[in-house]
# Entry
Amino acid sequence: MTLCPIALAVGCPKCPAFKICPATTILGDQKKDAAPKSEKDGKKG
# Structure
């Protein structure tokens, strides 16, 4: 359920605080699986 008024109006990605918002999966419209990964799959180091 989306509770954030910005997420309801325009969606989380269009919010100016999207990159720093800790509540995108709790209050916003982002799914937990949709969170960006920091490392690519299959990358060897």
In short: The mean pLDDT is 79. Residues 5-30 form one domain.
